[in-house]
Every structure is written in C-alpha cells, then in structure tokens.
Design goal:
With 251 residues, the protein is an alpha/beta fold. The chain contains 8 helices and 11 strands. α1 packs parallel to α8 and α2 packs across α3. The two termini are 20 Å apart.
C-alpha cells in the first residue's frame, strides 16, 4: 500500500491536510472519504475502512475539513457551507493529481455533505453514507442538548470527545440553506446507506428517511451493534468490506 501525505488549497480559503492511500497495483477505482463531525481523517474507524478499501483495490483520499486536524482555519468560523467547499476542492484535487473519483463515502455530517454534493460530480458512479443524518436540524438539536453554556452573542460551547468546540449562530443559520432529503432524491446514482440500529447519536430513523427518498438502485446495510463512530475495529472492517463488495458492481 502506498501512503501519500499531501495538502491542497480549498475554495474555503484554507490549507487542507489529506492522506491518499493507494494499492500497490493500479487501483480499480478512486474514492473520497469525508469524516464525521469534529472527527478527523485519522479517526481509527476511518483508518480501518480506508485500509480495507485499499486492500480491495480502491484508492482513498481522506482529508480534514477546515479547522480540524491538520487543516488550517478556526473551527468556530466554519460551517456546512465551508465543508462543502472543502469537499468540492478534495474531489477536484484528486481528479487533477491522481485521477477522477468514482466513489464518494461520507460518515455522519460528512455523509450529509456527501449527499449534498454527490450529484454534482460526473465521475462519481456510486455514493455511500455511514450514520448520516437526514436533516441538519438534527445536529442543531443535538448540540443544544449537550451544550456546556451559551454566550451572550448566541454562540454555544459543546464538549465532544473531551474537547470544547464553539458553534456560532452563523453555524446554525447556515444549515437552514440545505435540505439533505431533497439532495438525496436528486442523486441519480447507486446509493448505499450503512447505519446501526443502536446508534445513539444519529438515530436509525434517519436511515429510513434517506432510504425512502433515495432513487434506485439503493441499498441499506445494518451495522448491528456498532456505535456511531464504529469504535470497534471489527465494525469498521465490516463496513469497509461491505462498501468494497457493494461498489464493485458500479465502479
């Protein structure tokens, strides 16, 4: 396996840190992986899923959204719109430097971003989301539920994974510009939804709503007892193997 550490300039104005992993032989296909909210490209499950994909001949570009991990920017100044610019820039960077992606994969809010943009890239032949929300209002409710406090300007501070994050009012106002279910209905490409029925962060009802809106061919795979970020290596390996096997037909 070849591992290339790179950076590219995003249309959001930030330097985006990325890792491109390729099989030793020419890849059967290339993919772009968008991580979950406040996670990073180096999350253990992302590493495991990427490794599994590469072992099955699929190259992977995984990157940090602006303000996260190795990418530049202040997290509190980012929002869903900047995430979409970062994702668009990742797709274009991969295409210009290594080849066009034929598969897009997104986890949680990264899944929502993938849904929002998947229809816009002609080279993409199949779309996969893991634990994705059906609406962005879900995140607003979740963040308000776990907030530590609220600033006078309306910004809230939340603690996720032991770290504090500031979410400004603009972050939530920006979400109102996007309808993930409508975007899902416009993806005229094979669509795979993976979700755990015991996901306590993004409930299984989100998968049902997305599946109902999506066009055929569409598929749903239950992740059984997995948690939201696929903490257990076996759950991430299973997700990676399913994605590899499912996408084989389309990419």
């Amino acid at each position: 396996m070849k591992k290339i550490v790179e950076k590219f300039q995003s249309k959001s104005g930030h330097d985006i840190a990325a890792i491109i992993e390729l099989p030793d032989k020419n890849p059967k296909a290339l993919s772009v992986y968008s991580h979950c909210f406040t996670c990073s490209k180096n999350l253990k499950s992302v590493n495991t899923i990427s490794k599994t994909l590469v072992e099955n001949g699929i190259g992977v570009l995984r990157f940090d959204f602006a303000g996260i991990g190795g990418s530049s920017g202040n997290f509190s100044d980012t929002n869903f719109s900047t995430n979409l610019l970062d994702l668009e820039s990742a797709v274009e960077y991969l295409e210009e430097n290594h080849g066009p992606p034929s598969l897009m994969i997104g986890h949680s809010l990264g899944g929502a971003a993938t849904i929002a943009r998947a229809a816009d890239f002609p080279s993409v032949k199949a779309v996969v989301v893991i634990g994705a929300p059906a609406t962005l209002s879900h995140l607003e409710k979740k963040m308000n539920h776990i907030r530590k406090n609220k600033n006078p300007d309306g910004a809230i501070i939340v603690n996720i994974g032991g770290a504090d994050y500031t979410l400004k009012t603009k972050f939530f106002e920006d979400m109102k510009n996007y309808n993930i279910l409508n975007s899902a209905a416009k993806i005229n490409k094979p669509f795979l939804i993976l979700h755990s029925p015991v996901d306590m962060t993004v409930g299984i009802d989100n998968a049902a709503k997305l599946f109902q809106k999506a066009r055929h061919p569409k598929s749903f795979i239950s992740l059984d007892n997995a948690d939201h970020i696929l903490t257990k290596k076996s759950d991430a390996e299973y997700a990676g193997s399913v994605i590899s096997a499912w996408s084989e037909k389309y990419i």
